[in-house]
Amino acid sequence: MEKAGGKGYWKDPKQLENDPDLANLHDNAGFGAFSKKNVELPIDGKKNQKPELIILEPSSGKSSTGSHTPLLIILHGNNQSAEDAIEQWKFMVEKGLTVVAPQSGQASMLNAFFWTDFPEAIPEIRTHIENLKHKYRIDDKHFIIAGFSMGGGLTAKLCLDQAIPVKRIAIMGSYLAKLLIWKVVCKKSAQDAGKLTC
C-alpha cells in the first residue's frame, strides 16, 4: 500500500473503511497511515478535476438520419472510465451514430470513477447534453442512453425522472431493486409522456 500511495494511487476513504475484506487491517498502523493519506489526496486531485467527455463521430461525417444527429450516450460502471466504456461501444459509430461517453466527476481511485452520488451525477449528464445540443442537431427520435452496472442504474434514474429527453435506454449488468415496480413505472412514464421506450 505504501508503494502504491507513493506512485499516486488512492482509493475512496469510505470504500477503505467499509470494505469487509480490509476489516482485519483497521488496527494496522500502516493501513491507518494509508487511509489518512487517502483522505487528503482526493481533495488535491479534485481541485482541477472536471467531468470529461469522449465523442466518436461517423467517419463519413454524416449521420444515418441526414441532417440530424442520432446520439448514443454510454455511461461507464463504477470504478471504470469513459475510455473503458467507449471501447465497448465504438462499433456503433459504423452504424451512423455519434457515440458519447461521459466520465463521472466522482473519482473512486486513480483513473477510476463512479456515479454513486446521483444528485451530483444527473446535473453533469444534463450539462453534457446541453453542450452537445450547441454542437449537433440532436435527433430526439434516435436519442439513446445505455449504461453498465451503476451507469445502468443512473440510466434508469434519468429515464424514469425524465431528466433528459431520451427515447430509448439499454441497461446492462445493473442491480435494480424491486424490478417489477421499475417496469410498471417505466411503462406508465412511456404512456404518459410518449417519450420513453424501456
Q: Enter the CATH topology name of the largest domain.
A: Rossmann fold
Whole-angstrom Rg: 19 Å
N- and C-termini, Cα separation: 43 Å
Q: For the residues shown, what is the average pLDDT?
A: 77
Order of helices and strands: HHHEEHEEEHEHEH
Tell me about the largest β-sheet. Answer: 5 strands, mixed
Number of structural units classed as domains: 2
Oligomer: single chain
CATH class of the largest domain: Alpha Beta
Strand proportion, as a percent range, falls in 15-25%
CATH architecture of the largest domain: 3-Layer(aba) Sandwich
CATH superfamily of the largest domain: Alpha/Beta hydrolase fold, catalytic domain
Total helical elements: 7
How would the global form be characterised? elongated
- Summing up helix and strand content along with how strands pair, one would put the structural category as alpha/beta
**Helix residue percentage:** 40-55%
Count of individual beta strands? 7
